[in-house]
Each structure stands twice: as C-alpha cells, then as structure tokens.
Amino acid sequence: MNDQRVLVVDDFPEIVVRLERLLLAQGYRVETAATGREALRKLDDGFQGVVLLDLGLPDFEGLDLLDQMVRSRDSEAIQVIILTGFNDTQNAAEAVKHGAFDYIPKTPGMDDRVFVSVQRAFESIVLKKKVRNLTDELESRRMFSDIVAQSDPMLDVFEQLKNVVQSRVTVLIHGESGTGKELVARAIHNHGPRSRKPFVAINCAAIPEQLLESELFGHEKGAFTSAVSRKVGLFEQADGGTVFLDEIGEMNQALQAKILRFLQEREFQRVGGTDVMRVDVRILSATHRDLSEEVAAGRFRQDLYYRLAVFQVTLPPLRERRGDTRLLVQHFLNNFAREEQREVPAMSEQALRVLENYSFPGNVRELQNIVSHAAIVCTGDAITVKDLPKSVVDTVQRAPTPRAAPADFIRALDQTIVHPEDIPPIELVEAELIRRAIELHDGNITLAGERLGLSRATVYRRVEKLGIKKG
Predict the structure, then answer these.
(1) Tens digits of per-residue pLDDT, 359-404?
(2) Which domains does the chain show, CATH number per domain?
(3) What SS3 string covers 93-120?
(4) Would you tell me how many other CB atoms lie within 10 Å of the CB of residue 402?
(5) How far is CA 316 from CA 158, 175, 455, in A?
(6) Cβ atoms 244, 201 nearer than 8 A
(7) Least confident piece of the model among 84-93, 195-204, 224-233
C-alpha cells in the first residue's frame, strides 16, 4: 500500500463500499465520510490527497461543500473529483468551473473511469507541488540575485531570510569579516516594504566612540566644540526606511542603552538637544562576535541583545561555500573589466584550484582583492598561478593534506553496518561525532572544530541545528 490517500464522501453505503474495494486494490489508503461536515473535519485534521465527492449529501446543498474544500483548504495538496447522477451534466460542468478536477457519472461501468481520474489527480497534485517549489526557489533566487552564490549553505541562508523580508522585526546577522553582511542587509531592505525609503549603513567600529552617538542621532548647534550647526543623524535620515548597524558588538554600553531606548520607545534626542524625536525605521545589525558570549562577559547588554536578535542568521565563511569560489571569480573579473573598460583574460584551471584550496581568512572581500591583483599583473592569455599573490600560493602549498579516517574507525564501521537497515541517518552520526569531539576537548569549541575541520562558528551552528548537548 502506498501513501496516497483517497477520501470517499457519499451517503450511499453501496457506492462507498464499491469505491473502497476498487481503490484498496490499487494500493491507495482509503478514508470515508457520509456527510459534508465529517469530510470537512477530516480536511481540518490534515487530510491531503484526492476527494471523491457526491454533490447530493444531506447536510450540504449543491456546490457549497466543493467551494469550502477548494477555497479554504490547501488547494495544492487536494484534488476533488465529483460523483454525479447519470444525467446531471449541468451540475457536473458547473462543478469544474468551481475548481473540481473532474466529474464522473455514477454508472455501472464507472470503475475504470474512477481509476484513471484518481491516478491523473495525484499526478496533478505532484505537478502543482513541483511548480510551487520551483516558483519559491526562483523567487528566492530573484530576491537575493545581487548576492553571487549557489552553494547549499548560502541557499539555506536565502531560505531563512525569505521569512523576514516583509516583516518589521529586527535581524541580527552573524558572520566573519568579509562574508557580505551588509550585502545581505541591503537585500532584506531592497525586497521589503521599505525599499522606496532610505537604507543607511554605519560601521560602529569605524567611528570614534565620542562621535558615534552624534552620527546616529544627530546633534544641536553648540552641543560640543566642533558642533557649529545642527546635524541630522542617520536615524532621521532613514525615516521610513532601514538603519544597518554593522559591527554593533563594538558599541560602548552607554550608547547601547540609547539604542535600547529607541527600540523600546521609537524615540530619541539629538546630542545637546531636549526635543524628543520620533522616527519609523527598521533596525538590522551585524557582528563578527558571538554576542551571547559578550553578554556573558558583561560587555554587551542582555536586554539589547534580545531586542536586536528577534531573528538571527549566520553567513557561512567562503571556505564553507563549496562551488561559490568559481562563480565569484568570474563575477569579480566581469566587474573589473567593466570598471577598467578593458578585456580581462579568464582564470586558468590551475589557478582556480589554488583558490578553491585556500582558506580565505578575509572571505569574499579577500577574494575580490586577489582577483583584482591577478587581473592587473597578468600579461598572458590567461590568469595563471604565478599571477596570484605569493602569500596565497605559499599558504595552499604549505597546507597539510586532509587527514584520512583512522583505520580502526573504518573497521568499526564495517563491522557495525552489515545490512542496509543498519545505516543511521547522517544527522545522527554528525551530531554524535560533534558531541564527542566537544566532550574530548573539555567543552572547547575552537579545539573541537579544528579537529573536525570546521570553523568555530560552524560548530556552534551545527550544535544548535542538531540539538547537541554540550555536556
């Protein structure tokens, strides 16, 4: 018996028994209902599949039940086939207009028609789901088309971000330096309801502490020695739009308190001013630090952390984005050619392989600089290894070859997994391996990650995703 479900809705027991026998013989899982209300309860309980529906039920008139099934349920997971009287073609045609997949007259020879129609209805459900999945994927790709990526980790990020693009909630973006945090923040803004309003970004680590408050909230004339006139801050400039606070983990606690007040009250005062200003902005923030550790260490306010991190997303480092390096290389070469207004040679396979084996501590930003360097120094028909920075080539050549799995471990696997049903889910194996590595390193995530060949941030993500208990 397969997992495809058919619901037979008819108040004539003879018809129900006949259809049930027919469908069970074809391997379908069959449920029955004698009234419209009973059928709707089954749909409310999560039924998905094909419904064989008689229009002449005692508790519903005409097409009312069909309308409720088609319009108020998951139409992509349900198809309704109408069972009609032999001469009831008018109602049958009307039912199709109301969303029925097919109609079948109740005749002595209807079994073959039922079999074929049910089969086609399930094919239609599968097709509609595929179309929906493809549409969602294309929309996701279009939404973040400015971000060059095709790797699974980045597609996972895009999938997560789809949930917050149309929202007002704060988003905290984690990621190493150079992973594209501002690019992601811009994408959230550009495809959300505030896209026609300003997007204002500020790097909290790049501005002296004593000036950062003035940059954010503005100041009045005479507020301090160099304040020769009133200045409108970034929050006012972004009214109706989005403020992106990059490297918010570097902000001092005094200013953290003022950001918290704004998030709570949606109001602030300019430096040196007494007027209360109110603006409507969405706050997106980013950091390369683990803010939960900063909170534990007393360097970051816990209440502000909770306000900023309503939704959190972590951008993977470039070394974990398998397959994206080549895409990015071509993207940066195209940009370089356009900016320099000259042809740029392609990169050789050997040079690409060097870059694919490089760890990119500076992530995408470092790759962009490497590509620009190579394009400038290249004098041949293709960018070769000799055109890459020597430090990059030397690092790759010095890197140790990946460790092979210990022989005892392989033998243990061979002895444990004897039959196909012995193979455990990969998530279970990964979770146990990470848990054991953390345990053997006395809870030190960094050392456990090095042994596993994973970054510290990746280990934290896997621990959270897989529900691993650290001790």
Answers:
(1) 999 999 999 999 999 999 999 889 999 999 999 999 998 876 555 5
(2) 5-132 (3.40.50.2300), 152-316 (3.40.50.300), 321-398 (1.10.8.60), 407-466 (1.10.10)
(3) HHHHHCCCCEEEECCCCCHHHHHHHHHH
(4) 7
(5) 12, 7, 10
(6) yes
(7) 84-93
